[in-house]
Amino acid sequence: MSAITNLVILGATGDLTSRLLLPGLGTLLAQRTDRRVTLIGSSQTADDSWSSTVAEAFDSVGADGPAVDHVLETTTYVQCDVTKKDDMAELLGSLDGATCLYFALPPSVTMKSLDVLAELDLPQDLLLALEKPIGTDFESAQELNLLASRLVSEQHIFRVDHFLGMPAVLNFLGMRFANRILEPLLNRDNVESIEIVFDETLGLEGRAGFYDPTGATRDMIQSHLLQVMGLMMMDPPARFDHVELPALTAHILRATRIWGDDPGRSIVRGRYTAGTVGGVDLPDYTAEEGVDPDNGTETFVQVTLEVDTWRWSGVPVTLRSGKAIGNPRQEIVVRFRQPPHIYPQFPNDGNVPENVLRLEFEQDQVLLELNMGGPFDSRGMTRVTAQTDTAAPELSAYGSVLRGILDGDPTMSVRGDAAEEGWRITGEILDAFADGSVPLREYEAGSSGPV
Ligand SMILES: O=P(O)(O)OC[C@H]1O[C@@H](O)[C@H](O)[C@@H](O)[C@@H]1O
Asked: Where is each Glucose-6-phosphate dehydrogenase NAD-binding domain found (predicted)?
């Protein structure tokens, strides 16, 4: 696919655009000084402040250079209703060159817009970038995928999950496939358990309209943590490309099910009560403006899964995410089994602690816990943590996603069937909530989650 010339953000006045997309674009263009992209912001309402929104966002990440200046000088704003045929025809008609329509919109609006696009003659090399969530359940995800596939080929659909652009994920790929010492150990013979944890200090942040009907399971497990899991547990690809990686990720998700027979033991569901997080007082979740307590929305979820394949069967994989958590962890943790042979001369009759590999999600830090010394060492057994010391990544997670989009390279895009599998697994968790197998537990804001 050819590189993108026109980036059209649909839903340009939304929070996602100013908070994440534009700063991400800034970090990318500051690095790609030779890129010339035409940025068009579009939304249903008029907006006189688009140019200053773009400038402020670029400024917030200190982005400068010729590629950044080009965008600042040429960016335009178009008022357009994406669900109206004439509006979309006019918008597309005004563009010359390979175009990406970035749908920073709720899935219901995206679907209506895709329906409208089906009636138009679309330009060649049109790329559709679709923000999560892809649909609101398994069936609507299928429907949305079908609508998109009628317009362009799968290679021209980029389903965005910015967690796939986070340092932990990129580091894990490099550590696995550019070294000899890790990949042979990543299987049920050597791995005791895996955890993928993304807890946050943030509470609702005034997002009740989105969050209350959504909850932690749909918000964080459905795409982010499951896609990360699929990518990190995939079999080694023969090539690093848009065919192999998405296919291997989907293969893992297809093999995933809730651990054991009793969801009440494999899933924990929680909701925060009033408390203090990092010096900030948070009210009870149910007392937040716009929240309907009857929704029973969970602000915390932890689920243990099994990836039932030859390589991973029997290894518990725990995904966890909670809001209003004190001292939050945001990491991928691979816990290895103890050595197969026990030496009584080692402390604790040879029961040495297991090795643990930790990759921090948003920082470029990898930690490996090892045992050293032992019976003949005057210090005895020493637990050490080897830690990487690399520079912070130049691109934000959204910058990384946008690089794939602007290069027309969907390697790190979520493939349609993988998005559907995310909803299948999420549906099984939500069914267990609905049938009463998993009680909603309360935890104090600022605590480490439900006990
Ligand atoms: O830390 P980041 O990059 O903002 O990602 C976490 C966020 O990811 C978003 O997709 C979720 O909707 C938010 O609830 C969450 O806070």
From this structure: 8-171
pTM higher than the cut 0.90:
yes
Q: What is the DSSP letter of 214?
A: T
d(CA 446, CA 74): 46
> Is any ligand 1 atom within 6 A of the Cβ of residue 199?
no
For residues 411-430, give the mean pLDDT.
97
Rounded CA-CA distance 19/133 in Å is: 18
Task: Verify whether ligand 1 is closer than 6 Å to residue 219 (CB atom).
Answer: yes
pLDDT value of position 394: 84
What are the structural domains, with CATH classification, of the chain? 6-131 (3.40.50.720), 164-445 (3.30.360.10)
The length of the chain is 451
From the CA of 290, how far away is ligand 1's center (Å)?
20
pLDDT for position 155? 94
Ligand 1: atom nearest CA of 220 is 11
Q: Reduced to 3 DSSP states, what percent helix, strand and coil does the chain have, rounded to the nearest 5? A: 40, 20, 40
- Between helix 138-151 and helix 416-434 the angle, nearest 10°, is 160
Q: Which atom of ligand 1 is nearest to the CA of 398?
A: 3
Please report the ipTM that was assigned to this predicted complex: 0.98
* 177 alpha carbon, distance to own chain's centre: 21
Mutation to probe ligand 1, out of 220, 277, 301 (largest number of atoms < 8 A from CB): 220
Each residue of 107-124: pLDDT tens digit? 999 999 999 999 999 998
87 CA from centroid of ligand 1 (Å): 31
- Distance (Å) from CA 442 to ligand 1 centroid: 22
Question: What CA–CA distance (Å, rounded) separates 119 from 129?
Answer: 19
Nearest protein Cα to ligand 1, atom 12: 219
- In order of 24, 70, 124, the CA distances from 172 in angstroms are 21, 35, 36
- Residue-wise pLDDT tens digits, 328-387: 999 999 999 999 999 999 988 889 999 999 999 988 899 999 999 988 898 889 999 999
- Closest ligand 1 atom to residue 207 Cα is 14
